[in-house]
């Protein structure tokens, strides 16, 4: 029986790979350079590399592999870069009289502008000349007010066909209540414009608020062509089924993902948050901040009692996406973030990144701008090579770049380099505050799990800046996201809007039954015999604009069930906002959305304990490192540290995929599972 499962997370700089042998419990990790021109090349190189490391003498390719799970940023990158092959051929069909729905949007001005007259609204995802309307109207209960106008539908389909618009999103008013008009529009498009790729709002996001539903549907349509090509290319190369990570913390087979590609837009970061949650929970820390530092950006999330926070108020770039996703804040503060001088003459860092090619100066690939990684290299805080010597670094190039930038600023090279790192640390700390303080959480209550290739590099500074109790650096921190891919269940989310202040239990039961039937069909297609259904509901006080989501119990629905959900809403509202109207009959509770998550559970890999440290930990060497001053600093190899080993700063702990600088006044202790627990001695 095949016993090997592989997780592959494709990042902008490296492709991270983790293999778990379910028979022996062995976990093997490795990395390989990403191949942006064709990510499938890096994917396959990583798979073959980890299989060779696991069993050098094995033959037969992927015969012993029982499953492959992939985290990809293909959809995200297309949206963030506004690539021409996505939105340039995108059209929109909506209800007659609503052709300016995208232009009106929510009339909100981004933070930092206030009510400024100088803010210019960015271009819509679909320009108004590629928006077509069709007659017909449903009311909010799904009752037909005006019949669907098939002649106008045919005219719209032919216009798209004649003008080369090959990707189309369809969103009719109140289609969440009844999709009948959208289904008829799809039939017309299939007949008149058969090569078009079509997304229906009633299939992408079946809930009210037409603007968010429209944009979410159009984003889904925009990424469908490139995701289909990518998944097909990868399927041909692998020659077997595989799964893809979703933004909601579940996975889905590649065959299903091509029909709902928008669900993958935060694929990699979601896997990192879940992997870190499992690692932290095993270490006895169920509530943590997760910080995933990569080459281009840093992703932060909050885990409370073992579960990452979820949201449906997320966005990808400038596009609001109301699909369920792990609540992640991303900031352009990674190892490749570029240091630059503003017109006012001040030092700035990011969000622009040198990426993987040409990369930082120290990569020696033609990079011309100083990056965060160059600052670490100049200060001696990372070794003169990456991946255990596979990628040598040009220390002289980093030094020359830092010295040149310092000269322009009138600073010493050391002050310039530490300034770059200080700015990067404050950028990361601001992201952490967004995910904690702005959510009503005290950041000082949460240890931080620092992972990713660059995640541990600023751990000590973040402890100081934020007052964190500790930082946890897992073994192989650069591969936590890939490991997270192997820890998640198959999961699909379904939603139905049902606005009512006094819902009949039988009406709610009927909707939940329909949603659970949809979930069951999907899990059956995925091959799961065991199904788990998680119910939630969105409620609000009558007159409020936004809802609070609460868990809804399983079992039969009756008046007592409804009362229990309402009580949970009162408690959650009071927890979030500091007040509630539990005993005030003037403020009725309104039900808005009903949700079901269909879950196919998997067996999670067990985290092994590490042997105890025998005697004192011995460094493998020393080198000149700058913290407050230059000094000869001890270097430890992480693989040599057993449970109970203590590293006192100043020191540097190195391993294959990452490095932890232990600043003066800090101590790093190895726990029973090999995590480095970093605390301040001050």
From TrEMBL:
<feature type="domain" description="Hydantoinase A/oxoprolinase">
    <location>
        <begin position="213"/>
        <end position="493"/>
    </location>
</feature>
<dbReference type="Pfam" id="PF19278">
    <property type="entry name" value="Hydant_A_C"/>
</dbReference>
<dbReference type="InterPro" id="IPR008040">
    <property type="entry name" value="Hydant_A_N"/>
</dbReference>
<dbReference type="InterPro" id="IPR043129">
    <property type="entry name" value="ATPase_NBD"/>
</dbReference>
<dbReference type="InterPro" id="IPR045079">
    <property type="entry name" value="Oxoprolinase-like"/>
</dbReference>
<dbReference type="InterPro" id="IPR002821">
    <property type="entry name" value="Hydantoinase_A"/>
</dbReference>
<dbReference type="Pfam" id="PF05378">
    <property type="entry name" value="Hydant_A_N"/>
</dbReference>
<feature type="domain" description="Acetophenone carboxylase-like C-terminal">
    <location>
        <begin position="503"/>
        <end position="673"/>
    </location>
</feature>
<dbReference type="InterPro" id="IPR049517">
    <property type="entry name" value="ACX-like_C"/>
</dbReference>
<dbReference type="Pfam" id="PF01968">
    <property type="entry name" value="Hydantoinase_A"/>
</dbReference>
<protein>
    <submittedName>
        <fullName>Hydantoinase/oxoprolinase family protein</fullName>
    </submittedName>
</protein>
<feature type="domain" description="Hydantoinase/oxoprolinase N-terminal">
    <location>
        <begin position="5"/>
        <end position="191"/>
    </location>
</feature>
């Amino acid at each position: 029986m095949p016993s090997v499962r592989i997780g592959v997370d494709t990042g902008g700089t490296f492709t991270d790979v983790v293999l778990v042998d379910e028979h022996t419990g062995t976990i093997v990790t490795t990395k390989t350079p990403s191949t942006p021109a064709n990510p499938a090349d890096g994917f396959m190189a990583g798979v073959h590399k980890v299989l060779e490391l696991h069993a050098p003498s094995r033959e037969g390719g992927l015969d012993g592999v029982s499953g492959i799970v992939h985290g990809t940023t293909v959809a995200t990158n297309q949206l963030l870069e506004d690539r021409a092959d996505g939105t340039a051929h995108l059209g929109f069909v909506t209800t007659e009289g609503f052709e300016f729905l995208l232009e009106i949007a929510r009339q909100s001005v981004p933070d930092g502008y206030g009510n400024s007259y100088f803010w210019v609204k960015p271009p819509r995802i679909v320009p108004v000349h590629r928006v077509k309307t069709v007659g017909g109207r449903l009311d909010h209960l799904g009752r037909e007010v005006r019949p669907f106008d098939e002649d106008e539908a045919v005219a719209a389909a032919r216009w798209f066909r004649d003008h080369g618009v090959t990707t189309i999103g369809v969103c009719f008013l109140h289609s969440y209540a009844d999709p009948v008009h959208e289904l008829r529009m799809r039939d017309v498009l299939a007949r008149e414009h058969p090569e078009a790729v079509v997304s229906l709002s009633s299939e992408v996001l079946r809930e009210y608020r037409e603007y968010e539903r429209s944009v979410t549907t159009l984003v889904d349509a925009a990424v469908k062509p490139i995701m289909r090509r990518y998944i097909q290319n990868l399927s041909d190369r692998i020659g077997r089924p595989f799964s893809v990570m979703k933004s909601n913390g579940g996975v889905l087979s590649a065959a299903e993902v091509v029909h709902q590609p928008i669900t993958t837009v935060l694929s990699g970061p979601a896997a990192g948050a879940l992997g870190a949650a499992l690692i932290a929970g095993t270490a006895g820390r169920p509530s943590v901040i997760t910080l995933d530092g990569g080459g281009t950006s840093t992703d932060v999330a909050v885990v409370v009692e073992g579960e990452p926070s979820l949201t449906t108020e997320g966005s990808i770039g400038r596009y609001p996406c109301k699909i369920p996703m792990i609540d992640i804040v991303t900031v352009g503060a990674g190892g490749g973030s570029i240091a630059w001088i503003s017109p006012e003459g001040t030092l700035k860092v990011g969000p622009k990144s040198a990426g993987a090619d040409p990369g930082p100066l120290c990569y020696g690939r033609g990079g011309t701008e100083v990056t965060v990684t160059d600052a670490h290299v100049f200060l001696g805080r990372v070794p003169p090579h990456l991946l255990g010597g596979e990628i040598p670094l040009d220390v002289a190039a980093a030094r020359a770049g830092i010295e040149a930038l310092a000269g322009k600023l009138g600073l010493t090279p050391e002050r310039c380099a530490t300034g770059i790192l200080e700015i990067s640390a404050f950028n990361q700390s601001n992201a952490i505050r967004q995910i904690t303080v702005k959510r009503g959480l005290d950041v000082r209550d949460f240890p931080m799990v620092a992972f990713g290739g660059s995640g541990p590099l600023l751990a000590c500074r973040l402890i100081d800046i934020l007052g964190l109790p500790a930082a946890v650096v897992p073994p192989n921190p650069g591969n936590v996201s890939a490991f997270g891919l192997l820890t998640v269940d198959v999961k699909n989310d379904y939603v139905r809007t049902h606005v009512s202040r006094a819902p009949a239990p039988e009406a709610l039961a009927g909707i939940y039954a329909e949603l659970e039937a949809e979930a069951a069909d999907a899990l059956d297609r995925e091959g799961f015999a065991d199904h788990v259904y998680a119910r939630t509901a969105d409620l609000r006080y009558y007159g409020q604009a936004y809802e609070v989501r609460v868990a809804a119990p399983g079992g039969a629905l009756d008046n007592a069930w409804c009362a229990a959900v309402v009580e949970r809403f009162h408690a959650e509202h009071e927890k979030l906002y500091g007040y509630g109207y539990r005993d005030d009959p003037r403020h009725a509770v309104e039900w808005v959305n009903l949700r079901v998550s269909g879950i196919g559970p998997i067996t999670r890999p067990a985290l092994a304990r590490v042997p105890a440290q025998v005697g004192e930990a011995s460094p493998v060497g020393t080198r000149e490192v700058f913290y407050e001053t230059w000094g000869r600093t001890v270097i430890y190899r992480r693989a040599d540290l057993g449970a109970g080993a203590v590293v006192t700063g100043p020191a540097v702990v190195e391993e294959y995929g990452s490095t932890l600088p232990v600043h003066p006044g800090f101590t790093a202790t190895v726990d029973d599972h090999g995590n480095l627990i970093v605390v301040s001695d001050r």
